[in-house]
């Protein structure tokens, strides 16, 4: 994920005297408009002058902004730049040439539609949103899956920053949530000078894939009331004890919706077992636990009630070919470099039919040649973040299972920090932090983005962009 002219990193200033109030998240810099371009032309002209960049479409958006769908030609293998290439899809929300720029990575597909991520709102900046290589349509054809790894993806982002650095000459901030947050971290590790700061939300850090005690500890201790996890485990047992009825229900849903299982998990029965194994994880990842804990059906509930809960929390549709095949690039990376977590199964002894099912390789089509797991990739990232990273902000949720194995930082000298949002799940953000942590995080972001000297104002929100951004972030944090 990875040296043109290094960017001068924003200087670290003490947070003392720049802490903002609890409303800091809603504070942005004084409103700017999508300004006339400096002596280089209109934004469209500037974009069209970038070698390898294609303006696919400009879409009308809110006043003060311009929104583009773009394509950028990338080498399939950055080690062979004159070889095969593919077009990486991205979008641009243009605010002004005098504003900082946020490089927003989803880690998956980029969805077309203007929105502002949280750092973009705080900085009142431009936003470039990128699609991860090998997610359709940003996939080489034919695809050599050996080219899907963290170094190659980091090089994609490096070339993009290089290409647009003359268009957007102010500070750059990278950000992403979940796998997008991981992607931002890997980019920084291999190209640390590309951007002036990074905000990585709910980004897992599975350093040693075979050591999963952190996940087991999470499920033993999560929540305010241990009965909630106990109720979830009882529900899982009940579901597996009624496997025949529930698999029949699943098969009926598949017939109604033209779902299939043959390319990934293999059968409705295997898909059902995976769904049940995933239920407690999905519950803590997504559900507002304070309300949802009281809605877990008892083991004596009807089969229909169990099915409805399983569908609401995990979703029958996801564990089909139609649900999982779009995520094949993620599962390939998880099986080869990123690692995958574990879930508790002791309470399900005697009820499981498929030992070893809960792993990324279970989702991969048979035709993929999956290489041996690279056990050095994540320890290298972890060492770099812990000992060498600068100007990075990690935000995690207290009740998010993906945060059980998280990035560790050494605060102070490197201006790198981590905060945990109390009671939050996989949707944790700066807004969800305590007042003190929110102020420190916002001050750091504004400092890195070069706007800490600007007066903060209660500028009007742009609901069509900001509310869409919040919805988009929730979708992108639906990390499997």
TrEMBL record:
Pfam families, alphabetized: Peptidase_S37 (PF05576)
GO molecular function: peptidase activity
GO BP, one annotated term: proteolysis
Signal peptide boundaries: 1-34
InterPro entries, A to Z: AB_hydrolase_fold, Peptidase_S37
Keyword list, A-Z: Hydrolase, Protease, Signal
UniProt cross-references to PANTHER family, sorted A to Z: LYSOSOMAL PRO-X CARBOXYPEPTIDASE, PROTEASE S28 PRO-X CARBOXYPEPTIDASE-RELATED
Protein name: S28 family serine protease
Native source organism of the sequence: Streptomonospora algeriensis
């Amino acid at each position: 994920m990875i040296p043109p002219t290094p960017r001068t990193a924003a200087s670290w200033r003490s947070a003392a005297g720049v802490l903002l109030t609890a409303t800091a998240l809603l504070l942005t810099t004084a409103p700017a408009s999508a300004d006339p371009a400096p002596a280089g032309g209109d934004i469209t002209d500037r974009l069209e002058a970038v070698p390898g960049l294609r303006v696919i479409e400009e879409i009308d958006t809110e006043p003060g902004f311009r929104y583009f769908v773009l394509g950028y030609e990338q080498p399939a293998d950055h080690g062979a730049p004159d070889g095969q290439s593919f077009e990486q899809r991205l979008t641009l929300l243009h605010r002004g040439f005098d504003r900082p720029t946020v490089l927003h990575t989803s880690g998956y597909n980029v969805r077309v539609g203007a929105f502002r991520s949280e750092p973009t709102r705080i900085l009142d900046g431009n936003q470039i949103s990128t699609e991860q290589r090998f997610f359709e349509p940003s996939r080489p054809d034919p695809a050599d899956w050996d080219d899907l790894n963290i170094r190659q993806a980091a090089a994609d982002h490096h070339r993009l920053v290089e290409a647009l650095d003359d268009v957007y000459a102010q500070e750059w901030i990278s950000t992403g949530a979940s796998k997008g947050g991981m992607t931002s971290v890997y980019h920084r590790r291999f190209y640390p000078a590309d951007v002036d700061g990074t905000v990585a939300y709910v980004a897992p850090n599975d350093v040693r894939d075979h050591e999963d005690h952190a996940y087991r500890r999470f499920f033993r201790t999560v929540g305010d009331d241990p009965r909630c996890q106990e109720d979830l485990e009882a529900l899982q047992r009940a579901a597996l004890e009624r496997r025949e009825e529930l698999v029949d229900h699943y098969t009926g849903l598949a017939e109604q919706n033209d779902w299939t299982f043959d390319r990934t998990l293999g059968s409705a029965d295997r898909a059902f077992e995976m769904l049940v194994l995933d239920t407690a994880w999905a519950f803590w990842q997504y559900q507002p636990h304070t309300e949802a804990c009281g809605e877990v059906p008892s083991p004596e509930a009807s089969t229909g009630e169990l099915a409805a809960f399983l569908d609401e929390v995990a979703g029958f549709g996801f564990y089909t070919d139609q649900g999982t095949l779009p995520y094949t690039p993620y599962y390939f990376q998880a099986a080869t470099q990123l690692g995958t977590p574990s879930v508790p199964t002791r309470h399900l002894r005697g009820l499981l039919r498929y030992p070893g099912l809960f792993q990324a390789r279970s989702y991969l089509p048979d035709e993929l040649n999956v290489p041996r797991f690279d056990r050095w990739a994540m320890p290298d990232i972890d060492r770099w973040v812990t000992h060498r990273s600068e100007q990075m902000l990690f935000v995690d949720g207290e009740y998010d299972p993906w945060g059980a194995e998280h990035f560790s930082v050494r605060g102070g000298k490197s201006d790198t920090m981590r905060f945990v949002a109390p009671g939050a799940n996989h949707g944790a953000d700066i807004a969800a932090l305590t007042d003190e942590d929110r102020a420190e995080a916002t001050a750091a972001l504004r400092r890195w983005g070069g706007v800490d000297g600007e007066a903060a104002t209660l500028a009007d929100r742009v609901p069509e962009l900001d509310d869409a951004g919040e919805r988009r972030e929730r979708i992108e944090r639906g990390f499997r």
